């Protein structure tokens, strides 16, 4: 984050072929969950490959404030958990900075305890809707005091005994599903969550790994019901966090749009609930080879070989949205260099991410000469192969609205545009992808 230094703009310029072998930082979703479950489980959890971004560190601090011992050692992170049901009341508000995941999941994890927990965050997080998590927690008996519209700051107090619930998630959200399951860890009996559309399943996988009694049933229509028995014992684990596919997306799209590029991104998480962008880019004609597909710690992992490709526009299947929800900004950049139109529908959730990503992307594209149309929940981008005329010769800056993925997406755009692309701030990139600029310049990208 900014560490009080103020915004740091950056400019990306047309680059020669990108080449090299890289590894991106650990998966953000898995990193948060590893610290939460490690902090809760009895005994020692060891974590290698943890994303050491500002968002994840905020979760580590929150778990420490509730009694977990967490420290970085030479060979990774070591967590000594409190034991399930034994979190301590934090003495001060828990500050989650920019992180929706940390905040919403810990609301579930700690909100059901019979003590007060106050949640705060930065200007972006304070605008994001929390009712989606607070409503099911209320049904479990949690009292909530929150700012207007169920926004942060919010103070939660659980009952003496939380009520286990059966909850049908009204929107496709892994955060909501996870918050209810984590709350269920401290409720006697079975908490069940039904999700009509499958979202990332790292919470279910990891809960099982830590020894929770959990079952998943999928009906013929693909509706999943997860049942968790509360108040069981969780035991510390060893977790090796694979590279984040949502971070790999940036060098990946950069290599596709910069002529002559040929790169390898190693050790990328390939959980099928996370690979929507790769499938969509392949539909667009992208040359992405999946190498060394393997399993690591209960998750699929592979290396990706990516070469510059002539892309063509596609209509992205709307049911694919949950598996690529964080990748639409950078997909829009790929679309800006594709032949024809790319249509993206079902994007209403993009309006409540770290920024209103739909309008932030559309504004940035227009500022840089891309023909696009934004509607309530859709975006159409008409590309220009070769990037002729794209970019902003007068140096006008894309507004990033405290959103790391908006900053990285537009820096990728500048690498293949005729004119430079400038973003107003890069400090937020550290929330999810510390070392982004260095990794990209190491491949040959011109970013300064
Ligand atoms: C996440 C779920 C998604 C995603 C976010 C991480 C998670 O959010 O956008 O970056 O780790 O569970 P929603 O559940 O709000 O869709």
Q: Helicity range of the residues?
A: 25-40%
First-residue to last-residue Cα separation? 18 Å
- Overall CATH architecture of the largest domain: Alpha-beta prism
Side by side, the strands of the main sheet go 22-23-1-24
| Average predicted local confidence, pLDDT | 97
Estimated radius of gyration: 21 Å
Written overview of the protein:
The radius of gyration is 21 Å and the shape is globular. The mean pLDDT is 97. The strands form 6 sheets. It has a 4-stranded mixed β-sheet. A 4-stranded mixed β-sheet has the order 2-15-17-16. The chain has a 4-stranded mixed β-sheet with strand order 4-5-3-14, with helices on one face. The chain has 2 domains: 10-26 and 243-447, Alpha-beta prism (UDP-n-acetylglucosamine1-carboxyvinyl-transferase, Chain), CATH 3.65.10; 28-240, UDP-n-acetylglucosamine1-carboxyvinyl-transferase, Chain (Alpha-beta prism), CATH 3.65.10.10. Helices cover 28% and strands 26% of the residues. The chain is an alpha/beta fold. Helix 9 (328-336) links the parallel strand 18 (315-316) and strand 19 (341-344). The protein has 12 helices and 24 strands. The structure holds shikimate-3-phosphate. Shikimate-3-phosphate is lined by residues 29, 101, 173-175, 178, 200, 325-326, 349.
């Amino acid at each position: 984050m900014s560490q009080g230094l103020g915004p740091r703009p950056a400019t990306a310029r047309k680059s020669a072929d990108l080449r090299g072998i890289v590894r991106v930082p650990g998966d953000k979703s898995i990193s948060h969950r590893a610290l939460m479950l490690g902090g809760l489980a009895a005994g020692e959890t060891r974590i290698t490959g943890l994303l050491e971004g500002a968002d994840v560190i905020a979760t580590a601090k929150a778990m420490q404030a509730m009694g977990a011992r967490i420290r970085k050692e030479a060979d990774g992170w070591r967590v000594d958990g409190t034991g399930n049901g034994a979190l301590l009341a934090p003495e001060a508000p828990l500050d989650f900075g920019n992180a929706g995941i940390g905040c919403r999941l810990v609301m579930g994890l700690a909100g059901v305890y019979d003590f007060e927990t106050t949640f705060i965050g930065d200007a972006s997080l304070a605008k994001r809707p929390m009712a989606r998590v607070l409503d099911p927690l209320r049904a479990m008996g949690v009292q909530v005091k929150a700012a207007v519209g169920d926004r942060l700051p919010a103070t939660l107090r659980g009952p003496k005994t939380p009520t286990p619930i059966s909850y049908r998630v009204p929107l496709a959200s892994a955060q909501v599903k996870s918050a209810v399951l984590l709350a269920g860890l401290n409720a006697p009996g079975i908490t069940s969550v039904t999700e009509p559309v499958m979202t990332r399943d790292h919470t279910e996988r990891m809960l099982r790994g830590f020894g929770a009694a959990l079952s998943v049933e999928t009906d013929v229509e693909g509706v999943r019901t997860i049942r968790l028995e509360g108040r069981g014992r969780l035991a510390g684990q060893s977790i090796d966090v694979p590279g984040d596919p949502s971070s790999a997306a940036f060098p990946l799209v950069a290599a596709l749009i910069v002529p002559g590029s040929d790169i390898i991104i190693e050790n990328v998480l390939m959980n099928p609930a996370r690979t929507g962008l790769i499938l969509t880019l392949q539909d667009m004609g992208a040359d992405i080879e999946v190498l060394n597909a393997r399993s690591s710690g209960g998750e699929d992992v592979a290396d990706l070989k990516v070469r510059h490709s002539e892309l063509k526009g596609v209509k992205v299947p709307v049911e694919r949205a949950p598996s690529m929800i964080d990748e639409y900004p950078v997909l829009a950049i790929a679309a800006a260099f594709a032949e024809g139109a790319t249509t993206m529908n079902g994007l209403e959730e993009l309006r409540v991410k770290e920024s209103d990503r739909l309008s932030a992307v559309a504004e940035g594209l227009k500022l840089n000469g891309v023909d696009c149309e934004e509607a309530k929940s859709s975006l159409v981008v008409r590309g220009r192969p070769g990037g002729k005329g794209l970019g902003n010769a007068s140096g006008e800056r894309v507004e990033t609205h405290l959103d790391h993925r908006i900053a990285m997406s537009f820096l990728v755009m500048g690498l293949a545009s005729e004119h430079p692309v400038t973003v107003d701030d890069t400090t937020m990139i550290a929330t999810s992808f510390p070392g982004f600029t260095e990794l990209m310049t190491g491949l040959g990208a011109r970013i300064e």
